[in-house]
Amino acid sequence: MKKLLGIVFLSLLWCNVVFAGCRDDIEYSVSYDDAFEEFGKEKTAIFFVFKNKSEKEIELSNIRLISKDGHTMRKYKYEIDGDQFDAETLRPYAISEPFFSIKGLNLDVAKSTGYECKYVTKSEPKIKKNKSGSSGAKGFLKKLLGNN
User: Do strands 110-119 and 58-67 pair parallel, antiparallel, or not at all (unpaired)?
Assistant: First the structure.
């Protein structure tokens, strides 16, 4: 019985570690802005604030406003030199504040906001190691003279 309890306890502990993801490293808030008085009381923009609490780089994507029936009402996109992007990179211990226009949307049917995230993994450049331990002219000379 003790073994069974031990296995269950370790399994639950392992599951907690497995399911810990990038959302645990992000502090997230949303606000609406009545930025332009000329539009009256209509909300014109939605602002997101993402704070990275870790030393890891995180990619944010699919930042969106969601309707009560689960559909995406509007999605965050930005453009650089004619190319469109919908992902934002959150550097370690940094803050990102993406926003987009919601002018003209019926916010009575808006329910929530959402985003997806994943850790950015950088591959280390592979350094080619010389098998003989010598490089250049010395290595060539050693091979020529047969001194390995």
Answer: antiparallel
What digits encode the pLDDT tens for the residues 38-73? 555 677 889 999 999 999 999 999 999 999 999 999
CA-CA distance, 52 to 92, in Å (whole number)?
6
Q: Computed over its alpha carbons, how large is the radius of gyration of the chain?
A: 26
Q: How far apart are CA 99 and CA 29, in angstroms?
A: 12
pTM of the model: 0.64
**Burial (CB count within 10 angstroms: exposed 0-12, middle 13-18, buried 19+), residue 44:** middle
Show the domains of the chain with their CATH numbers: 20-120 (2.60.40.1180)
Contact 58, 94 (CB under 8 A): no
Q: What is the pLDDT of residues 84-118, one digit of tens each?
A: 787 888 999 999 999 888 888 998 999 999 999 99
- 84 vs 26, 73, 79, 80, 107, CA distance in Å? 25, 18, 4, 7, 26
Which residues lie across from 99 on neighbouring strands? 47
Distance CA 21, CA 25 (A): 7
